[in-house]
Amino acid sequence: MTTVFSPPSRPRAVSAASPTSDRTDPLLSEDNDPYLSPEVEKTSIPGITAPVRWYDADRTEPYTHIKPFDAEHDTSVEFFFKPATLTVLAIALTFLAYIAITNDVLEEGREKSLLGIYASISAFLVFSMVQFRDGPFVRPHPAFWRIILGINLLYELGLVYMLFEDLPTARKYLQMLDSSLNKPLPEKSYAEDCSFTFTNLYGAAVDIFALAHFLGWLGKALILRDYWLCWILSISFELAEYSLEHQLANFKECWWDHWVLDVLCCNWLGLYIGLKICQYFEVKVRGVPLSSTVGEAEAADIRILLLSLPVSRPTVA
């Protein structure tokens, strides 16, 4: 029997789209196929190459994840931390009704406007205690800090109202809260002798306003927690005193009182101690982000301009 040997067959070329194609060949793999490989997403910058969306904000800061107190802490006195909205509302309404129908209040000819203001403030603070959200402070109780927030909100609203009143009317309203107000105070000028001597420096330093400068900037440092921002505000306030010298005699000070005693001594010392307190308690110190390169500054300017434009526009087919 004769055996016939056939020459080896040449390997057949197959296309990449063929189901029998060799996937191990790097030239025929899906990663190199423009139709099969996934499209690489371009980096989008919100506000520059992409619209600004609500979920683009930084949600990593602790203050963005504030939860109710009783959801994270062990409440040993359980009834003290349970919601009691209806109970508080019933007690508040009963107390207001009792005050409103007493004989002293209903007495004819008696001034009752001040009592009405106090009742309105009390009702608003009760609402604040029950309905405001919890803040970052939990001692002695979150409800206490809700009331503090309500007091601050009332103070701000009072200042906004006083801004649109003339001076005699504003003084009359303040006198309703405290009868000792609306009386002229003795004015003191600090610019009588501006010679730069130790006696004048000591006399100006031993003053209630020097202590007010120190404590004020101590508190501002704890609140703002930004070294350069506090310095800018400190200098700006002294410039504001220059512009108000014609209205208040207390703002008339010597040059060394403005820049040496106030800015370099009292303000800086309060600022330094305030930031040291933040450092001791490991509080995050804020900083004004400054662009390090011209490109970053231009990108920030473009983003600010684009924020004034619509987020998107509808396409008309």
Question: Mind sketching the topology for me?
Answer:
Blueprint: H1 69-72, H2 85-100, H3 113-131, H4 142-163, H5 167-177, H6 198-205, H7 208-224, H8 227-243, H9 255-280, H10 294-306
Helix pairs in contact: 2-3, 3-4, 7-8, 7-9, 8-9
Short description:
The chain has 317 residues and is an all-alpha fold. The protein has ten helices and no strands.
Give the % helix. 40-55%
Number of helices: 10
Low-confidence stretches: 13-23, 288-294
- Dominant shape: extended
What Rg do the Cα atoms give?
Answer: 35 Å
The helix-and-strand class reads mainly alpha
According to DSSP, the number of beta strands is 0
Q: Mean of the pLDDT scores?
A: 74
Q: What series of H and E elements makes up the topology?
A: HHHHHHHHHH
Give the CA-CA distance, first to last residue.
Answer: 79 Å
Q: Describe the biggest sheet?
A: none
- The percentage of residues in β strands lies in under 5%
Can you characterise this structure?
This protein has 317 residues and is mainly alpha-helical. Mean pLDDT is 74; it is low at 13-23 and 288-294. The longest helix is centred in the last third of the chain and has 26 residues, at 255-280. Helix 3 (113-131) packs across helix 4 and helix 8 (227-243) packs antiparallel against helix 9 (255-280). The N and C termini lie far apart (79 Å). Helix content is 48%, strand content 0%.
